[in-house]
Amino acid sequence: MKPKVVITDSASADLSIELAMLEGRAEIVHGLGKSPEELKELLRDADAVLNCYTQLSEEMVDGMQRCKIIARSGIGVDTIPVGRATQKGIKVTNVPDYCIDEVADHTLALMLALRRGVDQGAVRARQGVWDLKGLTPIHRNAGCKFGLIGFGNIAQAVAKRARTFKFEIIVHDPFLTADAARAHDVKQLGLDEVLSQADVLSLHVPLNEHTRHMIDDASLRQMKPGAVVINTARGGLIDTTALLQALDEGRIAGAALDVLEQEPPHDLQAISRTRNLILTPHAAFYSVESMEELRTKSVAEIVRVLNGEEPKYWVNKKA
Q1: What is the C-alpha to C-alpha distance for residues 84 and 87, in angstroms, rounded to an integer?
Q2: Under 8 Å CB-to-CB from 201, ≥6 apart: which residues?
Q3: What is the pTM assigned to this prediction?
Q4: CA 227: distance to chain centroid?
């Protein structure tokens, strides 16, 4: 009897990669469009689960009787109740390295769009306005401070790129050692120091109970009036209401968000009219190549576990 693999949903409407890798190895069952109760029933006798956007509840995981692995097609695992899966002995995996270059490039693109007035200038040019009047003041990047909250793989790639624009890199990450900071030529500071000193603040931490709304009204009030905020990580890291108010009041110079607390937001048109705010539709991770890598690596974890091997990107492995 072939093991049963439930695909709750996918990063792509095209499942050719997934089907090619699992064909002959497993019975493939599609869960896309199922109600929570229907999905719970499908998962009951699943040997493996491939998950992307669908939120798996603790109740769903509790009902799993044979599951060996839940493989997330993505970096974060906030769609999976990892603690409950761990209690049941279910391996949880992710793909932490599939879009490092894409997100780093996108972060720098948003930075330049804000600090060089690219978005404002393009809009004005399309409206037939061919002058600099009304643009937010533009300052030279060289010598300014690029603040990173979190210093994992993506943030390190951002730092490398930002350095080519002659930024000084300042970082807050409680897990960053002094030796690692020296090796990457970054200055390690406390969170309050990064907030108050950064000309560019870019977020690169996971979303959890400790980081939700870490950028709130109090945080924004610590920032320079000329600073900009960039978020290509998780929408919940920023209190959106507080950010929009700070922009409306001119307390910071701008913000660029690839992720929002709610996607898409109910009031997208209203939010998009906020002055000095750039929005992209959760696209920082995307390229044709990154999607192929994501899909291949996530399914490969299922294949490994079904073959009795350890997964490569085992999130809840005990030390």
Answers
A1: 5
A2: 147, 149, 194, 195, 215, 223, 227, 228, 229, 230
A3: 0.89
A4: 22
46 Cβ contact list (under 8 Å, min separation 6): 4, 5, 6, 29, 64, 66, 67
Give CA separation, 99 vs 148, 262, 287, 299, in Å: 18, 22, 8, 16
| 3 state SS of 243 | helix
**Pair of tokens at residue 264:** 């898409």
52 neighbors 299 (Cβ within 8 angstroms): no
Rounded to whole angstroms, how far apart are CA atoms 15 and 23? 11
Catalytic residue ranges:
234, 263, 282
**From the CB of residue 153, how many other CB atoms can be counted at a distance below 10 Å?**
15
DSSP state of 305: H
Q: CA angle 257-287-171, nearest 5°?
A: 45
Q: Encode pLDDT of 200-211 as tens digits.
A: 999 999 988 999
Which domains are seen in the chain, by residue range?
A: 4-98+288-306 (3.40.50.720), 100-279 (3.40.50.720)
pLDDT digits (tens, 9 = 90+) for 13-56: 889 999 999 998 999 999 988 999 999 999 999 999 999 999 99
